[in-house]
Amino acid sequence: MEEVEQELFIQKLEDRPSLCTMEAQGIPVIDLSPVTSSNPSPSAIETLVKEIGSACKEWGFFQVTNHGVPLSVKQNLEEASKKFFGQSVEDKKKVSRDESSPSGYYDTELTRNVRDWKQVFDFLAKEPTLFPLTSDEHDDRILHWTNKNPQYPPHFRYLLFFFISLVCYTMMQKHIHE
């Protein structure tokens, strides 16, 4: 991450978590097999939705198993991601998200007015993504969002699309066979 004043990353005392020790039972693991199987039952899907909701509410994230994406695809995407984020800030900012599109590199997100220690590369699953300019039902203007295209690594964009396509295909597979 670029060199910045550390004060940007320090929360006010009243916003910091208490220093009591908490024991966690582990990151929630969500098994997607109820929706990736050929015959998912409505009750299994309902249970899955509740598990995801609980994990999001209690933890803010979760690990997914039985998603149908081969390990090699995941590893290739992780390797490419490390290469992208390992570049200089100057190179990453060449594909920064901006007012015209929510996709791209970003490293200045705030939580409680304190800068987060993270970097992201947002990527749209569908390109172009069409979005209404306003919430006015009479306003027909549409935004056309497209993805930023990093030059390095050269196959990063392809891997992102491939990964998203596999996830979508796996989730929709049961509908294709019906």
UniProtKB/TrEMBL annotation:
Keywords: Iron, Metal-binding, Oxidoreductase. The keyword Transferase does not apply. It holds the Pfam family DIOX_N. It comes from the Eukaryota. Residues 27-150 form the Non-haem dioxygenase N-terminal domain. This is Non-haem dioxygenase N-terminal domain-containing protein. It comes from Stylosanthes scabra.
